[in-house]
Design goal:
Strand content: 25-35%
Shape: globular
Number of strands: 10
CATH superfamily: chitin-binding protein cbp21
Order of helices and strands: HEHHHEHEEEEEEEE
Radius of gyration: 17 Å
Distance between the termini: 16 Å
CATH architecture: Distorted Sandwich
Number of domains: 1
Largest sheet: 6 strands, mixed
Structural class: alpha+beta
């Protein structure tokens, strides 16, 4: 399977991504790496792009991307609070089912809070800014190729992929892909919860707009989990049509 060339150099070590060490040291809070599982890598989700820059470890002064900097500064009063916005890149999730009442995504992730999965700690990732890193996605025969990075893989699981324009982060504005093909590529074959990646071959929804900024919205639901834990992410993109 051939994937589009996206302008990001991904050289991350998954074993180092379980927790925010700085947060644990400063708050005394016990970390829970088992609740953190994945996000969009290509194109990078907002939090994953900011994380990948590794320029926030000494506060906001070194952050080069203006949107990452603004989101960081609005994420808390202390640097350890702010850093978890990016360090916990794979923890943007909600449980859609409980022992009493199953929930719809919009019951827990309200309009305007889609990028943060409705979590207060991650709220500033929702800010409107033209400075968010934007990835060009090439279209071939109406389809785009994506990569989803997982610190734990889960099967069976379900991916849903949506598009919306940059300033309309509302459920009713999302256009859903009618077809998402998934290829599972684990880093190791020892156990189903190994780290790895999912390669997504996605048919674009009708009515998508090319050559303007859009938001690619991905939901990844763990179907083997009774709680239906589901991960949410926003990636800022420009859809580029090609003739070939």
């Amino acid at each position: 399977m051939k994937y589009a060339k996206l302008a990001l150099n991904c050289t991350f070590v998954l074993s180092c991504l379980c927790s925010s060490v700085q947060a644990a040291q400063n708050s005394g809070e016990k970390t829970s790496p088992e609740i953190r599982h994945g996000t969009s890598e290509l194109p990078p989700s907002r939090q994953y792009y900011c994380y990948s820059q590794q320029d926030y470890n000494n506060g906001s002064g070194g952050i080069k991307n203006a949107a990452c900097k603004e989101a960081y500064e609005k994420a808390g009063n202390e640097n350890w609070e702010r850093a978890r916005l990016f360090d916990n890149w794979n923890a943007y999730s909600q449980n859609l089912a409980s022992s009493q009442t199953p929930a719809k995504p919009k019951d827990l992730v309200p309009d305007g809070k889609l990028c943060s999965a409705g979590k207060v700690d991650f709220d500033s990732i929702n800010i409107r800014s033209d400075a968010w890193h934007t990835t060009d996605l090439e279209v071939k025969e109406g389809r785009i190729q994506l990569v989803y990075i997982a610190s734990q893989m889960h099967d069976p699981s379900k991916f849903r992929v949506f598009l919306t324009d940059q300033d309309n982060l509302k459920w009713d504005a999302l256009k859903e892909s009618p077809d998402v093909k998934v290829e599972r590529v684990p880093d190791s074959k020892n156990g189903k919860a190994t780290p790895g990646r999912y390669h997504l071959d996605v048919q674009l929804p009708d009515g998508y707009v090319s050559n303007s900024k859009s938001i690619l919205y991905i939901m990844w639901e763990r179907n083997e989990d009774p709680a239906r834990e589901t991960f949410f992410s926003c990636s800022d993109v420009v859809i580029k049509n090609t003739r070939s």
